[in-house]
Specification:
The chain is mainly beta and 148 residues long. Helices cover 15% and strands 47% of the residues.
Length: 148
């Protein structure tokens, strides 16, 4: 199993979204997602969140909220436990990302993006302010085949 973080950073009724388009063999290639990544040895969810946000965006989160855990079952890959966060407080300037293009997207426009099917289920809950989001999403290829 692997642990990851995903953060949706908020400013002016927008979320900072990442179009994953720069890495070959990226399972997220062509999709819009938040920012985050895999835990390194010895990291807590908060350690990983702060490091990944800084690496991918140049921003330093000054506060954040834990919103839940999404469990991904994806093809034959190991199970992924994604720790979901939001933040509306940060310092620094946005930098370019080596994994894709970063863009502030109005929350109302996010459903028009190329998203994972499961993201379409938890993003409205994030936007509405819900906490305690726990979901299990099962995929075969890019197709969502199960939701619990």
């Amino acid at each position: 199993m692997k642990n990851t973080t995903l953060c949706y950073i908020e400013k002016d009724d927008c979320y900072l979204m990442l179009l994953r388009n720069k890495k070959e063999n990226d399972v997220n290639r062509g999709k819009w997602i938040g920012v985050g990544g895999h835990f390194e040895e010895g990291e807590s969810p908060q350690d990983c969140l702060l490091r990944e946000v800084k690496e991918e965006t140049g921003l330093t989160l000054t506060s954040f909220s834990f919103r839940g855990i999404v469990t991904f079952i994806y093809n034959e890959n190991e199970t992924e436990y994604m720790h979901l966060f939001t933040s509306d407080s940060f310092t620094g300037s946005l930098q370019s990302c080596d994994e894709g293009d970063l863009k502030w997207i109005r929350k109302d426009d996010i459903p028009n993006l190329n998203l994972w099917e499961g993201d379409r289920l938890f993003l409205p809950r994030l936007i509405s302010g819900e906490t305690g989001i726990f979901m299990k999403l099962t995929y075969k290829g890019d197709r969502l085949t199960g939701v619990e």
